[in-house]
Design goal:
The chain is an all-beta fold. The protein is built from no helices and 38 strands. Strands 1, 30, 32, 33, 34, 35 and 36 form a seven-stranded antiparallel sheet that branches.
Length: 508
């Protein structure tokens, strides 16, 4: 007998995107499962860089108000600290230190900003600073001196420096292994081999202006404010081989999500509505765009924060007994299944807004539901009991068609749901033998409404998950066919998942 238990994880964390907005002095909180803006929080004038202070707290440096705000995303507490800064800070959580730069120096505080531990001076115009992966080194970029310096985090002494970098260095990236530095200079990128001290220029098209970079595998993703796109650069041959056009102007910061399936891109969108573009890393295409609520908010930095989330769904248990027959065949078999009807009572989708714009909703199309690429994780919980766990993220993309000032437009988006399956598998079977199929049917509840630049509607969804594997099926004779009617092992369309108001714990 094989016993199968499928349920949505009862004790999971939920990811939220935190976005700093330069012009409005706010942080925007976004629910990552449905890309819905939950709240905006005032933190200070001109908030720039964001870092995590601990599992629940975000630190943001505001250079005009000269404050660093700690925002606790569970309690809602906001603590402002008057600390002169130019928008740059780094937090070393291991050694409990905070590095804050102003124009000419870096001040080192304890992690709560209550005590000054030291400072590093001798700069002309600090524009960017970063800690390496293990926190042992501090990298500082001076745009006027055209110099990258490397300091020890132990004694703050200079370890190395690279001078005469080129025109207008404005941001940089350090590889995880500390071997390479990538620096935005003029319209190109300077690649530095830190060990050999060799320099190489990665040439980009005329008019380029790189504002942010991030590495994924062997690809350097660079936000190009000059050409309003994301450059894809192969770091093995140092050639820019492709690009992704952003939804609005001036892409700035980049972030890879924790599941390594997406890149978040902030677009400042001056004289318009700033956006967050979500790029699928498998296909390198934009799969959703989140519009900020306020005009000319100018989103700058973005981070992802995981908070505890509790969901208690019904559990489906399927006990399957094999019956000995005279003839044996090998066939696909459903070992366990789970079904649930789910309501999404409120969905808000922000649309781009221009003055005197008139919107009319036309249609929404739900794409086939999928398991997000690289999100699946299988693990044997016990070698003696046979219990195993399969975790994955289910996603459905959608397209909303609407009319804006008599012109047809559309916007892409998606929903996601983290799911965990528990299986009691016999010792003679391997966990990798089983497949997961998801089938969902999704319908709109009521008539969608548009107010200002927001589409509001509800959704009803039915979700069905199946664990499928090969098994020996016993039948009486060749004339009797194995009854497999109703079992579909192909890709299904639609998506469902309990991710909205009645089951959501919003931060702050």
């Amino acid at each position: 007998m094989l016993k199968g238990v499928i349920k949505i994880d009862e004790n999971i964390t939920r990811n939220y995107y935190i976005v700093s907005n330069l012009n409005t002095g706010t942080l925007t909180i976004v629910d990552s499962l449905c890309n819905m803006i939950l709240k905006e929080i005032e933190v200070g004038r001109s908030p720039y860089n964001l870092v995590l202070k601990d599992n629940n707290t975000v630190a943001v440096a505001c250079n005009i108000s000269n404050t660093i705000s700690f925002v606790n995303c569970i309690s809602g507490e906001i603590k402002q600290n008057y600390i002169p800064n130019n928008g740059n800070l780094q937090i070393d959580k291991t050694n409990k230190k905070t590095f804050v730069s102003n124009t000419f120096e870096i001040n080192i505080y304890d992690i709560n900003l209550e005590k000054l531990l030291g400072n590093i001076g001798g700069f002309s115009a600090i524009i960017d600073l970063k800690l390496n992966r293990d926190g042992s080194k501090l990298y500082v970029l001076d745009t006027l001196l055209k110099e990258l310096r490397i300091y020890s985090n132990d004694n703050y002494k200079l370890i190395n420096s690279f001078r005469d970098l080129g025109m207008n260095p404005r941001c940089f990236l350090i590889s995880d292994d500390d071997k390479f530095a990538y620096i935005s200079i003029g319209s190109n990128i300077l690649k530095i081999d830190i060990i050999s001290k060799k320099l190489m220029v990665l040439n980009l098209p005329k008019g380029s202006l790189i504002a942010g970079m991030i590495l994924k595998d062997r690809i350097l993703y660079a936000s190009n404010q000059g050409l309003n796109r994301i450059e894809l650069i192969n770091i093995d041959n140092n050639i820019a081989y492709d690009f992704i056009m952003t939804s609005t102007l001036e892409p700035t910061k980049l972030l890879i999500t924790e599941d390594n399936t997406k890149i978040l891109v902030t677009n400042r969108g001056r004289d318009g509505y700033g956006t967050i573009d979500i790029v699928d890393l498998k296909y390198n295409i934009i799969i959703a765009t989140i519009y900020m609520k306020k005009y000319n908010s100018q989103p700058y930095d973005v981070i992802s924060l995981s908070l505890p989330y509790t969901y208690i769904p019904p559990v489906a248990i399927t006990n399957l007994q094999q019956i000995n027959k005279g003839i044996t065949i090998i066939a696909k078999k459903v070992f366990a299944s789970y079904n649930e009807n789910v309501n999404f009572p409120i969905i808000n989708i922000n649309l781009p807004k221009d003055l005197n714009s008139i919107y009319t909703f036309e249609n929404i199309i739900f794409k086939p539901g999928i398991i997000v690429n690289n999100s699946q994780y299988r693990n044997k919980l016990s070698t003696t009991s046979g219990f195993s766990s399969i975790k994955f993220i289910a996603r459905v993309n959608y397209i909303i068609d609407y009319v804006k000032n008599h012109k047809k437009e559309s916007i892409n988006g998606f929903f996601e749901k983290p799911i965990e399956l528990f299986l009691d598998i016999p010792k003679d079977r391997e966990l990798e033998e089983f497949e997961i199929n998801i089938k969902t049917i999704t319908k709109i509840i009521g008539t969608p409404e548009i107010a200002d630049n927001v589409i509001r509607f509800g959704v009803f969804s039915r979700m069905e998950l199946k664990i499928i594997g090969e098994d020996e099926i016993y039948i009486n004779s060749l004339k009797e066919n194995y009854d497999n009617e109703g079992e579909d092992f192909e890709a299904f369309d639609g998506f469902g998942g309990s991710i909205f108001v009645d089951e959501t714990i919003f931060p702050l």
